[in-house]
Amino acid sequence: MGLTKQSTGRAALSEVFNLRLGSTDDIVVALAGNPNTGKSTVFNSLTGLKQHTGNWPGKTITNAQGTYSYQNKSYILVDLPGTYSLLASSVEEELARDFICFGNPDATVVVADATCLERNLNLVLQITEITSRVILCVNLMDEARRKNISLKLDRLSDLLGIPVVATAARSGQGLDELKATIAKVASGKVRPKPVKITYDNDLEALISEFEPLIQPIGGHELNSSWLALRLLEGDESLLRSIKDQLAYNLAEDEKLQEGLARARARLDENKGLGDLRDRIVTSLVKTAESVSKRVITSSEKASYMDRKIDRILTSKTFGIPIMIGLLGLIFWITIEGANIPSELLAKGLFFIEERLLYIFDQLASPVWLKDMLVLGVYRTLAWVVSVMLPPMAIFFPLFTLLEDLGYLPRVAFMLDYYFKRACAHGKQALTMCMGFGCNAAGVVACRIIDSPRERLIATITNNFVPCNGRFPILIAMASIFIGGSLASGLGSLLPSLAVLASIILGVIITLFVSKLLSKTILKGLPSSFTLELPPYRRPQVGRVLVRSLLDRTLFVLARAIMVAAPAGLIIWLMANVKAGGISLLDHGAGFLDPFARLLGMDGYIILAFILGLPANEIVIPIIIMSYMATGNILELDSLDALRELLVAKGWTWLTAICTMIFTLNHWPCGTTLFTIRKETQSLKWTLLSFAIPTITGIIICFLVASGARLLGLV
Amino acid sequence: MDIKIMSLDKLPLGSPGRVKQVLSDSISRRRLLDLGLISGTRVRPIMKSPKSDPVAYEIRGALIALRSEEAKKVLIERI
After folding, report:
1. Fewest Cβ atoms closer than 10 Å to its Cβ: which of A51, A52, A446, A628?
2. Cis peptide before B12 (omega within 30 of 0)
3. 8 A C-beta contact, residue A337 and residue A394
4. What is the C-alpha separation between B26 and A136, in angstroms, rounded?
């Protein structure tokens, strides 16, 4: 459902799994699967939570836990990160494997994509090697039907030896059966007997010889032949996990180590059969292949249309123009569509403001109290709601549609070349997209990048993409100073282009700074890049639009109340508490003014940005209040009125542009900084994340302002 | 018998090939194996990005994008 209340802001700071058991009777169910199989949708549907979903691999990065009850029992569902395998090549895989091995789930549900079953079976087979309490949930059956792919699920169940449930989680199909099956497996009513995977003869002989030495550890539910293979492979991370979780140090078991050495020597002898890992994976893949062949019937034609569309969308001539055009279109719809709602909201809220003032007068309240609450708190709140809410309520559903469609990986696909040249990872394009919604969520999204170096680059540069809170600043500035009349459809064209240009500038700066970081403090080589381009999925348009709209509205309102209102109070105080005859606000602005002028702005603007640290959406309200506190305009019910106010204070197009540039390039907001600290576990990188966008902002604004002045343009 | 063996990045769009050997090193190798790119797997380049790098390949029903450096290390036989 796109970026939700729960995946952005402070919710993005949620912990890596820390199982919260209600009682010891609670049944723990692990939810595993390849990335991008609709696992999160299954999770959301079962638990009623709203974790972020979307059609691109890797967006479940935080481990979510939720509960549901079925037949009077309470179930805890743990959503593991999507992985292609449990053979631990990455942190996610380790996490998933550790949970399944040591977390003792009462059942493990593996969610698979019905349109891509063969590849998904690799993970299923690996999991059935570890535990027998596995249920295969074949999801996206509606997509399979659409593509004329039919599956013999009973046959599949026989071949695998575990129960198989068909679902189309988006529309709720199959979920009851899934819950019922989970209950049966967890309680022991149904005991799956997974079919054993056979490896090549020599390997099998080796396993059976080595296995007896491992039995002691298997006092836990650990499957000993699986464990034997992992030891032979020398899986370091597993050895560590066993030591941590089971308090058993395998290195100290002499007999085991001897047996291991012998087995390894034997393996080296017949190296001709290939590396051990190769042999293991080959057997798994081949088994998956043979099972799929007997279970799937599909027609080639099904993916023909998809491929054709894909080719056009990523082609040399059309690919990037279409991408920019699409983004521009979204902005245009956002700006155009937000006009009327904004006006209505502004008029309505201003009407209420008048009434409030009246009520306060009637109650004979002290002037300062009336002013503080109505002109301070309420007005800020009203502004945030009327200006910030409509654009966000339109942009997000549109963006979510694009996400659900599966377009975002194509963006990463097209831009990877440039990221490679900037010595960064192509997945950074995806983290930047997340940053559009909320930079804190974007920073968390950087977990999809494995290499620490590239992850840091993505984290530090994430702020160059304007988020939820900063977007409306760009739109407002563009609409006022670059727009012209707000009435006609064409009138929204210029502001849309201006916002688009800002975004593109942000992307260019990101690439440039990434390259700079790669060459200086974050030196290193590009890591590998494999990105799965999931099939296009038809988004449930109606559902997405409505849900996302509601969700976004609630989010903005909640933020407005929790952050904007208190901030309004503080700003009002600063504007009205005087020290030495001048308000605190004026002191601050006066101090910053010379510096700000160099950057094409004024002291109040910079002060507003500083005070806007908790949340960027209060920057404009702060500016307004600062200006109005010094006396002039009384009413503020439309963008036209705002223009008058700003012009009266000396704003020119240069001021607007520099403000827009600084909006793009300044320190991250409080929540984001907090998130960065948490993700990087390092004060140094957090400070750098603070400094780098700020310095870029100062430099660029200075250059633009000076240039414009020198050229006599202003 | 004219068997053409080449690296994956040289395979023309739409032409199927069969994997002979994966020469990549540890981490890339594991990832490719996990995605099903083992010896004998059928692979076909489906589309190129605007700069011809990366290229998206069809591997066991899924579309996987690989950079040219990775594709260079996969030996295939043209079929």
Report:
1. A628
2. no
3. yes
4. 30
Mutation choice for A interface testing from B34, B52, B55 by most A CBs within 10 A: B34
Angstrom distances, CA of residue A389 to CA of A433, A466, A681, B70: 20, 16, 34, 45
Among A293, A414, A528, the strongest candidate for a mutation testing the B interface, having the largest count of B CBs within 10 A, is: A528
How many CB pairs below 8 Å do chains A and B form together? Answer: 122
Supply the pLDDT for residue A405: 87
Report the residue of B18, B38, B57 to disrupt the A interface, i.e. the one with the largest count of A CBs within 10 Å: B38
Give the tokens for residue A654: 């240069």
Query: What's the Cα-to-Cα distance from A313 to each of A308, A310, A410, B47, B62, rounded to whole Å?
Result: 9, 5, 8, 10, 18
Whole-prediction pTM: 0.83
CA distance A86 to chain B (A): 9
Instruction: Please compute the mean of the pLDDT values over residues A497-503 and round it to a whole number.
Output: 87
- Short-list B50, B49, B8, CA closest to B28: B8
Contact A532 B53 (CB under 8 A): no
- In the three-class reduction of DSSP (H, G, I as helix; E, B as strand; rest coil), residue B77 is classed as strand
A170 burial (CB, 10 Å; 0-12 / 13-18 / 19+) is buried
What's the complex ipTM?
Answer: 0.93
Residue span(s) of chain A under CATH 3.40.50.300 come to: 9-187
Does the beta carbon of B42 lie under 8 angstroms from any beta carbon of chain A?
A: no
Rg (C-alpha) for chain B, rounded Å, is: 11
Asked if the model's pLDDT at residue B57 lies above 50, the reply is yes
- B38 CB neighbour count, 10 Å cutoff: 22
Beta-carbon contacts of A116 under 8 Å, excluding residues fewer than 6 positions away, are A34, A535, B61, B62
Q: Do B63 and A277 touch (CB under 8 A)?
A: no
Task: Assign domain A201-297 to a CATH class.
Answer: mainly alpha
pLDDT over 90 for what percent of chain A? 24
- Residue A72 · residue A122 · CB < 8 Å: no
Q: Rounded distance, CA A446 to CA A455, Å?
A: 6
Separation CA B24–CA A601 (nearest Å): 53
Q: What is the DSSP string of A197-228?
A: PP--HHHHHHHHHHGGGGTTGGGSS--HHHHH
Q: Do A311 and B33 touch (CB under 8 A)?
A: no
A284 touches B: beta carbon within 8 Å? no
Q: Which pLDDT score is estimated for A641?
A: 75
- Angle, in degrees to the nearest 10, between helices A236-246 and A91-102: 40
Between chains, do A413 and B27 touch, taking CB under 8 Å as contact? no
Model confidence at B41, pLDDT cuts 50, 70, 90, reads very high
Return the bridge partners of A531, or none. Answer: B65
The residue in chain B having the minimum alpha-carbon distance to the alpha carbon of residue A149 is B61
* Domain spanning A9-187, CATH class: alpha beta
